[in-house]
Amino acid sequence: MAPRYQSTMSYALSPSPDDMLAIRETLADYAVMMGILDEIERDRGASANLVALHEQAYATIRERTRLPARLVTLGLRDHAGRTSGNPITDLPLDGRLYAIKSPTHLSLATIDGRRHIAYAVTGYEPGWPDHAEARLVLRDDETLILVGIAGAAKPKETIMATEGILSRIGRVIAGVAHGSIDALEGANAIATVEQSIREIDAVAEDARAGAGRARAEEHRLKAKIAEINDEIEDLAGKIEAGLANGREDLVKPVIGLQIDLEAQRSALETALGEAVSKIEDAGKALQAVNSARQDAVARLAALKRSKGAEDGSRGANASVRNDNRLAQSLGTIERVTGVSGRPATGASEVEELARMQREKAIQERLARYKGQSET
Q1: For the chain, what is the mean pLDDT?
Q2: Which of 80, 137, 154, 255 could form a disulfide with 90 if both were Cys (CB 3.0 to 4.6 A apart)?
């Protein structure tokens, strides 16, 4: 089986002083987390069972640090590859902890919220030895995000990989509007413009695919937020029932569960805002590429007429039909990324409070029935 990642892409960050402070504080909290896991390992032995380790450490880590829930989950696995006592100068990332926002800026989750930081792509290296999708690294005077790339980097693909979809479309439009003009008088003028149209179609396909993924992500995040809202509301009823019965020992763990769910909801709402932004960018991209294709089709038709091409009319009509396809509805991509599931703590307390809540509902309805019968 081929390795998941075959090369490494390096983003060199240019954080502001406030950004750098947030990054260093996040690394400091991550070091606290590693210390907690070191203590558990010394007291109970190393565990390869991440579920068991989650149950042992998750609540303590959330109480003693301000780390995002997703970073805590990634850190549980990351701890196994570290040597106790070594300084913490890096931490694992995934697509929910960092996101490329434009050709010049990315967003990074820290304990002080998401930071928008300027970056530059510094190049590729062969191989990716890490288990995480990406890693934030402080090295000498550099602040880097290293990312695993599924395909090996190729010289012709490097420019495309470092461009956002909007900047890529701008480059294609500029090529059609200016570069192709000089080629119109050449021997291969028709082939040159047709190739430009094919490149525009490829950009359009990328834009549609990106819009589909963002739309699917939006629906998935909305559904997850609604699910968490329902669960938080349900827990509120159980908490009230527990307090009414004087069972604070059961209520406290459930309140902790409710707080964790609210933190997950906040993270999901941030991700939802990013998905909506991606959808807007994809819409702008499709509008731009549609305009570029119309211009290229018009140039091709004029060129064929000027050269007396017999199939000029048929070619123009075919291009118009293809152009209409660009306005079709955005497709939905079934593949979606996962999010952290509901916390596993407090399960038995929830069941006990559910029983008490049901008993309270029965008693209240019985009292109403008795009151009605007496009147």
Answers
A1: 75
A2: 137
